[in-house]
Amino acid sequence: MSKQDISQMGSARVSIEVLEGVDCVLKQGASDVEINFYQSAAPNLAGVNIPNLVKLDGRNLFIERIPNSISLNKLQSNPKVCEQLASLHRSQYVPSFPVKKHEWTNVATTEALSILDLPESAQSSIKLMQSLSSCIFECSGLISGDTNDGNWGTRANGELVLFDWERFGHGSPAIDLAPLVSGLGAVSEYELIIRQYSQYNSSLPEAELMKDLIIAKCWIIIEVVNILVSRNNPETTKYINWYRSNVPQWLASVANAL
């Protein structure tokens, strides 16, 4: 068995393996959510392309390797992205196992703001968004919870696939759409992805989805900062400096859309 380590931000150790002649991704120490997802949920999610489960050995999860990465620009112009996400969000499947609980706590906000050291006005705006955030977590629909461009790829036949399902849970579609907007995003960029997504799922009013998207994007800032710091990620300083430079202006630019 040969292997190549590809671990990045995740808590599990991830490597490329060849198992009985088949290229696989091995996640050592995979979470209960992801193990149960591949065993129970994946076969029931029609319309969503998910890597095949090759083997489960204790907490070692062997899944199909998706060989080709895809850039965020290409994802943004690919209609299959919103089509697949809409299929997931409209699914009637009810998980029989505990899924990831997504939430935005006071503790998380306090920790992230102490690191970011933003102006008082920006801190107040973030705290306001947190106070409004129950709307994105109380939705009963299924979500991936982690749709950043690093978690998409294509098979050799060009088929688009979404992988890394350890944050599978319930929430607003906005949680899955927000990472597909470059950077923090302008209101016009949110309007564009809402139009694209609404072609496949029009169950949420566009004004509501806009509000949810902005809140979700702000929540992602808090999540990313705290994850980077807790895992001693070597890129932490770069991200923190970028957020310090861009978050205050972004918050001002989206305030009227809330």
UniProtKB/TrEMBL annotation:
Keywords: Kinase, Transferase. This is Predicted choline kinase involved in LPS biosynthesis. InterPro entries: Kinase-like_dom_sf (IPR011009). One of its GO terms (molecular function) is kinase activity. It comes from the Bacteria.
